[in-house]
Structures are given as C-alpha cells and as structure tokens.
Amino acid sequence: MSTGEALARAAQATQVEIPQEARDKARELGWEDGLIELALAKGHSLQVIWQALRAGVDGDRAKEFLQAGQAAIPRDLSWMNVPTEWGIRARPKDPAMGLTIADLMIGTYGDVPDVWTNRSEIARGSFPNPIVEDMGYTIFEKALVWADCCIPLYEEAIRDRWVSATDLNWNSLEPLPHDIERAVCQFLTEQSERAYFTGALWSGWLPEISYGFLELKLFLSTIIYDLARHSEAFRKRALANGGGLGLQAPTDFSRVAKEARSFPELAAILFVQDSMLYTLFSHGDEFAQNELERDLYRFVARDRKRMLDYHIERMKHMLFKLPDRRDEQNLYFNKAESRMGKEWLDPAVSEPLAILLGRGVDHIDEGRRKLRDLRKLQVDNYLADLQKATFVRKHINGRLEQAAQA
Amino acid sequence: MAANPATEATLDLSWLDLYDDATSAEPGKKGLTLKEINLGRYADSARGAGDMTYRMRGAIPRPGAQRFGPNYQSKADVWAENCLMLYEEATQRQWSSARDIPWDTLEPLPDELERAMCQLATMLTEVEFIAGDVPGQWMPFVSAQDFEAGLFLMTQIMDEARHTDVFRKRALANGGGLLAQGAGLGLRTLIEARDFTEMSVLMHVQAEGFVQSMFRMGELIGQTEADKRIFRMSAQDESRHLAFGVMHLKYVLDTEPERREEIHHYLDKAEGDAAGGGSGDVTFPPVFEALCILLGGGVDKFDEGLQKFLLLRKRQINEYVHRLTVAGLGDRRQRLGPLMAQFLDPA
C-alpha cells in the first residue's frame, strides 16, 4: 500500500464510528489503544474487526497479525469439533410419511431426559455453551408433560391438515328453517369462542416448556393451529347461511382452565373438555343439517382425536411416574366437571343442540331425549378415556351427573 | 337476556332471536375466506370495545360473563391490515418437512461443508424454537375482538414448529449431527419484550427480517437441492411473518404516531444488544464462520466466503431499513448503530 493510500484509508477510518462495545471488548482482550484505528487504517472493515473481537483474538495476536500485513482474519473453527454425536444419517422408516421426527430419535438425539436441566434454548443434543442467559422456562420434568404419542401425532397432524376456505363446499349451503339456522349459529358461536380461547390458552403455556421436550412443543403447536382453524371455520359457517353470531359462550369452564396454576392441572381440566368435545363432534352426523356441516364436524373430530390421544397418554405416563399425584387429579376433574355441568344446563348451550338433534323447535322433546343420550355417551366415554389413562373416577361431580340427565 | 337453567318443563329460547340481521357471506375466488365474512357488524371496522373476555367480535355479550384478566383493548395494539389475507395464505401454504423436502437428493458432502451446514442448522433450530414461544407468550393478550391477528399468530406458531423441526432434520439427515449451541444470538430481547408492538417490531421486522434476507441467499448457502428447498419453503413462511410485522408497525404509526419515539427506543436496545447484530445475530462466531465456509465453498475459500458474508450483512441491513421505511419509520436510518450503519447504502 502506498503512503497516499494509507493516509486516505486512515482519513476514512476516522469517519467510522467505533462502537463502545468494540472498545470494551478490545480492552478486555488486551488490545492496545489505537489498534482498532490501525486495523481500520489498514483497510479492514469494522465488521471484520468485530468478528475478530467476537472470536476472542487477543491483543498480541491481533498486533502480530496486523504487523504481518495479513489480509485474512484469524479463524477459530473449534465448533467443528465439539463432542456431539456425529455421523447421523436419519432415514424415513415409512416412505409414505417421509422423514418424520420419529426418524430423528437416533442415538443420543432420541434421549428425552426425565429431567432437563438446561435453562437456555439449546437444541437437545447440541454442545452447550457454558455461559448463557436463563430464558425463563419453568417446566423441566418429563413426567408432567410428556406422552410418546406426541411424536407420531405431530406428523399426522401435518399430514391431515385441511383448509376451511376450500375444503368445505360452501356453495352447497341451502337455507334452513329459522329455528334450525339460529340453533346452528348459536352452537357455533359458542364453539368458535371455545376454540379461540383454548388455542390462546395452550399458546401461553408454550414458553414455559423447555427444549428437552421439543417434540411435545411441536405437537402442541399443531393443536394450537387446529384450534385456530376450528374457530374460524365455525365462525364462517355461522355467517354463511342467513344467520349470525349469537350469545357468547358461558365463561365458567374456560375460566377454570385459565385459572390452572400448573401444566398438569391445565391438562387435567382440558382432558374433560377435549374428551367431551371429541364424543360430541364424532357424533356430528346426528346434529349436522347438511353435507358441509357433516364434513366440518368430521374434520374437527379427527383433529380432536389427536388431542384426546395426547391427554390419555400424558395422564397415564404421569400417573405411572408420579403415583403420589393420583388423588390430586380428582380435585381438577371435579372442578372441571362442575363447571361443565353448569354450562350444559345453560339454555343457550343445551337448547340449540336439542333443536338440532330433534330437527326443529317443534320436536324439541325428541331433541332433548337425544341430547340426554348424547350427554350420557359423552360422560361414559370420558370415564372410559380416564380408564385408558389408568385413572378410575369413582364418582363424577354431582352437577355434571345432574346435567347429563336433564 | 338472562340465560336461566332450563328444565324438562321449561323452554327458554331467549337466545333464538337476539338479532334480526341475516348474514350470508358468499365464497369468493379463493373459497370462503376471512375477507368474505368480514362484513356488517362482524367486520373489524365495526369493532366495539373489548371486555376482557374471549367474546368473539360480533357475538352478543353475555350478562355475567367473567373476565379473564387483562388483554389488549385497543385495536392498534395488535392489528395489521393484512392479517386476514395472511391467515388464509398460511393455511393454504402449509407444507410438510417430512414429505415436501427432497431428502433423497441429499448426498455426502466434504466434511467441512457438512459441519458448516450442521452448525447453521443448529443455530436455526434454536432461533425458530424461540420464534414459536414468542407469539405464544402474547396470544392470551390478543382480544377476540381482533381475533384475526390471533389466528395469524397461531399459524406462525405452526410455521415456527415446522422450521424448528426441518433444521433439526437437516442436521441429522446427512451424516452429521448438531454442533455448538448458539449464544448471544439476540434472542433474549424477543422474550423480554413487554409490549406486543415491541415484540412484533423486534421479532417480525428485525429478527425474521434478518433471517428472511439470509434464507433468500439460500441458493448460495445451500449445498444440495434439499438444502435449497428448505430455505425456499421457510422463506415463504417468513415473508408472511415479516409482512404482518411491517403492517402492524405501519398501523401503529398511522393511528398512534405518538409512539414513534417509544419504538425507536426498543430498536436502540435491540440493535445494541447481541453485539450489534440484532436479534437472530449471524455474527456469532460459529455461525459467521459456518456461513463463510458455505458461501465460499470450503475452508480454503473462507475469504471468498467472507466477502459474500459481508454482502449478506449488507443485504440484511438495507432490507431492514427499507422495511422500516415502508412502515413509516424511515428516520431509523439516522439512528442505526455503527455496526449496522457501516453496511447502509446512501439514501
């Protein structure tokens, strides 16, 4: 470099503002005062100097490097040889499903620890940085959240995705009698709100769960996405056929879910709702008034089955790992059943279903009889679902029992 | 309207005739989308006051409804004019990391390139993990009066799950593995946000903008067709998140211009944190070096890669400032920290 060029670069260097963070880092690494300016004068960009500082190049090395007139910056490359498990070649076990997250459960990458101890967002299986900030996770215990089925269910949820805008035949809708249309709309107003609320509720718990249970978080993300779709699909149906949105949903059940102080409590409460709703929507043909609603309820039931499968297996796993927490679950089930029973007795909840099941307000007695049968089935299936989770609920809440017989 | 418990003998039916306007949304060319049902008293323009319940916009308030704790009462706090369209686009463009990536096109790479790709994937799976938690943190505060914004965030949570899994898959699919944890990637600033707009400008506009600029150089970074497809598909999703952030910021600045200085304050902090690299910082040494190796085509072409890396940073910074300008925050140009300002093209 000629003297003229050096002076020109030095003049240019004086125009570059050197951030205080860079000066502090340079001092920490023992860089002499003026070395950053010298590097700039020699034509190194601020970014390149900054990369050297971030890489921990000490003062002596930096000086030697600059005096030697090297053009390149020193490299570290130590990350290439960190002691993680190497040589992994995951392959699809089922070509129809493609490369699933189940296929990644290889070697140490498949170890889901009983207790995860890292408080950062480290990817499970990567080499930990010893100095990282606490990211504020609160759930580190596998027994509280985990179910093995979350691994296949995640990929199934993606495979089974549907789109309300185009997968439902909106052009097929035909006018319904006033009472029936209003009943559809009231039922779906309630369900749209429940789905939106539950999606928001699950969402709020995501940041609590640490990376150790990555696959579970991925699965919960599909639940949240499903609930978004249910909420908007129900709203669309309510606004597509001469009706509108009716009275907002009762708040008792959702409030008790919102009040949950821990993930197991939340999951126990939502077990009750998700079991009941699965039974309801899987019998959607009985209250659907047209092909579109039948399709809609079938889609929803398929999604809700995945949620229920998770609940059953999580509960079973938790009770196996933490048997001393078995009786505690009765407290949560009791609260949830009580609120649900109260809501089932609400006319804006029960009457629309009775009208739909009876095919009109004139046949509401028949509809009520069918609703009683359906409510009984919901309760029976719920108790059976609990049994699958190895939980025997000896006495359901009296209010729910009463509501099921009303 | 009182919804009283009904018995066999009584019939309430008070819910049956609460409104007298019949609504019949018609499907459009893209089916029945949120746009088609955004009409009459159900439209976002007819939004009433929130009530701290989860009552959907347009539903009749229930007497005695319990509150659920604070949520945003003002539309500007969470809204973006494009969120209806973005939600529908998200549902149409969901893809599968299992089946839409041509994993069978992966072929053994020279060790240094495989390690560099795995290091980048390790960093990205971390970044995308946080990017799912962050909107999750804010969902409970998005009122159902603005439910379309909430629906969009729920699609983002799904997108980020897919990104988290696809980069993990990439690291474990070609004879490699995960490598060094990222640190100082500027991700804490995202989870530290205490306001939705703060979160959105830092995550959607800055962090996802930087990631998007990088993904759009995926043709240069990716070494195989599978890698390139991963970047293309992920970039498609990031575009939506970014578009939401830009339009949310625009909505805030249009309707609440007094918040301008407050928003600068958040950006001052975020640009200063993460060693000046912003959120999703690619200047973290292992990521920086991995990118230089991938962009150059090997360790022996590191310097060539460095030049491309500097181009990447230039692209990231200029696109970032352009997006802020589109949102109405063009004066950010004068306030960028030196580590970003060094890359800024003249106005």
Q: Top keywords for this entry?
A:
heterodimer; A: 406 residues; mainly alpha; Ribonucleotide Reductase, subunit A; 2 domains; 17 helices; B: 347 residues; 11 helices; 0% strand; disordered N terminus
Please outline what is shown here.
Chain A has 406 residues and is an all-alpha fold.
Describe the structure.
- The complex is a heterodimer of chains A (406) and B (347).
- Chain A is mostly helical.
- Helix content of chain A is 59%, strand content 0%.
- Chain A has two domains: 3-76, no CATH class; 142-405, Ribonucleotide Reductase, subunit A, CATH 1.10.620.
- The radius of gyration of chain A is 30 Å and the shape is elongated.
- The N and C termini of chain A lie far apart (94 Å).
- Chain B has eleven helices and no strands.
- In chain B, helix 5 packs antiparallel against helix 7 and helix 9 crosses helix 10 (302-327).
- Chain B starts with 82 loop residues before the first helix and ends in a 6-residue tail after the last helix.
- The model of chain B is unreliable at 1-8 (pLDDT under 50).
- Chains A and B meet through helix 4, helix 7, helix 8, helix 9 and helix 10 of A and helix 1, helix 2, helix 3, helix 9 and helix 10 of B.
